[in-house]
Amino acid sequence: MIASLRERIARARQSLVRLLRARLAWLTTERLDFNGERGDDYAFAVVIGREHYREHRKRYPISSSIELLRVISQETNRRPGVFARIGPLLDNVREVQFFELPDSFLAEPPRALFWIPESVVVSLTLKDTDVATISRGEFCYYVSRSGTNQLRGGAIVTPELFRMAAGVPLDGLNREFLDSALLPHLEIGLRRLSAEDWWSFRGPELQRTVGELWRPTTALIAGTALLYLGIATVYLHGTLVFRQWQLDRLGAEVTPLLAAQRRVDELAAERASMKSILEARVAAWPTWEIATQVWTHEGSFSSIAFKDGEVVIEGRAPSAIKVLEGLDARKDVSTARFDSAVRQVDNAQQFVIRLRHAGRPEVGRGP
Amino acid sequence: MQGGPKLDAARKQLLIGVALLLAGIRFLIMPWLDSQADTREQLEVLTNRLDRSTGVVLNREAITTTLAKLEKANSADRARFPLAEDAERFRLEAQQRMTGVVETQGMRIDVFDWILDGPPDATGFGFVRGRINFTGDMRSLALLLGALEGELPNMVVREALYNFVNPVFGNGEYRASLTLVADFHYRRGPKP
Prior knowledge:
The structure holds 2 protein chains of 2 kinds.
Chain A: H1 2-21, E1 24-27, E2 31-33, E3 43-48, E4 54-60, H2 65-76, E5 82-90, E6 93-100, H3 103-107, E7 112-117, H4 118-123, E8 131-136, E9 139-144, E10 149-151, H5 159-166, E11 174-178, H6 183-191, H7 195-200, H8 204-249, H9 254-279, H10 287-291, E12 300-307, E13 310-317, H11 320-329, E14 333-338, E15 343-345, E16 348-357
Parallel strand pairs in A: 1-3, 3-7, 8-11
Antiparallel strand pairs in A: 1-2, 4-6, 5-6, 8-9, 9-10, 12-13, 13-16, 14-16, 15-16
Chain B: H1 4-58, H2 60-78, E1 83-84, H3 87-104, E2 109-118, E3 125-137, H4 138-151, E4 155-168, E5 175-188
Parallel strand pairs in B: 1-5
Antiparallel strand pairs in B: 2-3, 3-5, 4-5
């Protein structure tokens, strides 16, 4: 059961990955999706082969990216097919990579939202000292981790020569990718592409859409917010008027009834206070009725203390235990016990007995 | 650089836009939101009032009946607690009343000491605590305690300690002292 479920999840995952790969394309002399199949379906992103674009770099002493974007926009005159990738600020200078697609390419543009240069994607899969050699038939180029790349030809005909030209240490790894063997690495590179890079490589169609839509979208959001505020205001005021009307409709008897309710609350609180005082009032006079029990056993007492409902009798008797039993047997005594050790003094036993009233004797009856 | 004036114009447009946006938020949206918050508070108060009002109208009979019952029950118990404007005046009154009861029993107070003030609670009930000493024969002291508890319904005895000069073997003439610690409760308010 569980194995079957796992199998189904694995199959569903594979189908989903296949579906997503079908929406990523690689455009060289032919167009392949990331499943390795030919086709011209509309893609989320297309990786554009190095043979299709020219690349150059330029340094600008501008720290603000927004300012730099404006300058680049002025310089390129927003020409379609030109992508700029702005590098980090180093010594108050930013290096910008420009990728230019020829008009012949733009005549039949790839159908995709994002157009990503191949050299950028490959560079993201490399380590700092690696150099990759990408070969497709007669076409071949070298690329390093920094994104620097060079078509084979002229003085640069081996990866080692490219290393020297690009300033990459000679002891690094040379990696070679032939034809479609590059596809899995492109997928890895795409995952490592930063959000800024995705934004830089938005295709002309997406650029146009964003340019056209941002104003109406902003207006829609602002309008919705204002509409919400308006509706909320109308609701609040309407409800306020309605509540007032409901209150008025209850009539004039409400005010005296509210006053009566307040009076009930006050009286209930007063009652609770009085109850707590009266409950604390335990009569002390019945102490005498209890203490005289000592005499019935030929005993005497020298002090009687009453404190918060408890009575302590100090005295002497021929048998202290008989006095205790006599007290304990009384209905008006709940607990009686010796409060300290019984001592024999001459012919009598000296005792201290502590006891508690069983009930709550009525105060005011008197002895 | 080419395009400078264009850049300036774009920047000016952006700055004006931001200024207008901030002004809109400051002078339109914020006051609007504040006004909504006020209205919401008013609505909450009014809703609570309406709930209370509806409640009292629906429970008209119960309120009237409870009020009558409480008035009757409280007025009986309330009479136990004398009205006093403050603790100072009440102490004097309580001491006078106690002296009166003691004198009718043919006794006298040896020491009267106020030891604690219990401030009035939310319903106006307060108390003062006193320690009082008496001496006399055993029988008189026993009768005195009963008389005090009977005559002073606002008095709550906390402690009563009898000490006898000689051991007490039965009814008879035994000299003793009584130390009483008691709370005298009162209601704060103007005297009628």
